[in-house]
Amino acid sequence: MVDSDIDLSGRVCMVTGASSGIGREAARALAGMGAELFLLCRDRSRGEATAKDITDDTGNSNISLLLGDLTSGADIRRIASTFLELNKPLHVLLNNAGLFNTTRVLTPGGQEEMFAVNHLAYFLLTSLLLDRLKASAPARIVNVASGAHVLVKGINFEDLTFEDGFSALKVYSHSKLANILFTRELARRLEGSGVTANAVHPGAIGTGLGAQNGWLGTLINTMMRLFLRSPARGAQTSIYACISPELDGMSGQYLENCKAKRPKPWAEDDAAAERLWEVSEGLIRAQASAS
Ligand SMILES: NC(=O)c1ccc[n+]([C@@H]2O[C@H](COP(=O)([O-])OP(=O)(O)OC[C@H]3O[C@@H](n4cnc5c(N)ncnc54)[C@H](OP(=O)(O)O)[C@@H]3O)[C@@H](O)[C@H]2O)c1
User: Fold this and answer.
1) How many domains in the chain?
2) 3-state secondary structure 268-288
3) Ligand 1 center from residue 70 Cα (angstroms)
4) What residues make up the domain containing 175?
């Protein structure tokens, strides 16, 4: 377990997807170390229950909710401006929210939902908060990716909504490859700013991931919870990436089991990372002008 003697009082941390699984346990650990927390959740009652549970457990009541759906660019913009208007620093942004769909679902903005929530939402939220993170340096951005990136060999630039050849595992893995490439390009752009960006593979963890997919989702999810590691174990590398002094100044890394590791070569493709950045910017711009 990551050293919990670290004192985070005075530090402000934002965690997305905080109402379940790995995000909830990472938020609990950060609260236990005294951080002020902003929990980004889409459901008020689950968010409030999470905040109460964490406060009861840690004694830290310095926890606020930011409510919104990460399939919606408008919600992400509203959440970012709500936070920015508070004029608080931001020392840690943990982009953790994610989903696994067994079928192809499009967002209201026309994006494939796993790409939208697992990648585009990280990209947009980070972009909107970047100046505040820089002004709060030293600060860290942590993107929860996955070892599943090994299952695809590159970004499907020609068909990002997977109109042709949708396969659930492939499309999920593709979005997680996007997390690693985004992190690399972000780290490159942040050089010298005092803000670091690292990606994390949490391991295979029994969480709520995929549970919303009808009977199949319930079955897979029950098996995951029975046989895989607990969310508290799964949160360790995220927590490490958010706070460990060993990572001071270290950026652009892919971390697994609280250690840097080389991802697959296609996750170290800097040309693809730069292209993904430009394409993501274009998609976000198009989404903003359509709404
Ligand atoms: N579990 C694993 O084995 C594993 C392995 C590798 C990587 N990961 C990654 O770990 C991260 C956390 O997943 P988890 O395993 O902890 O799963 P989880 O228990 O299902 O948690 C996912 C979180 O994301 C939130 N979320 C999903 N769609 C959202 C949306 N449209 N708007 C706002 N929030 C949304 C969920 O909100 P609700 O609570 O409202 O549903 C939930 O809080 C994900 O990025 C996942 O890809 C997981």
Assistant:
1) 1
2) CCHHHHHHHHHHHHHHHHHHH
3) 11
4) 12-290
Residues annotated as catalytic are 172
Q: Find the 203 Cα to ligand 1 centroid distance in Å.
A: 13
Class of residue 213 by CB neighbours under 10 A (exposed 0-12, middle 13-18, buried 19+): middle
Question: Which CATH number belongs to the domain containing residue 254 in this structure?
Answer: 3.40.50.720
Angular region, 288: left φ>0, alpha ψ -120 to 50, beta rest: alpha
In a domain, 3, yes or no: no
In a domain, 1, yes or no: no
Name the residue of 45, 72, 207 whose CB sits within 8 Å of the most ligand 1 atoms, as the mutation to test its pocket. Answer: 207
Task: Supply the pTM of this predicted model.
Answer: 0.97
pLDDT tens-digit readout, 65-106? 999 999 999 999 999 999 999 999 999 999 999 999 999 999
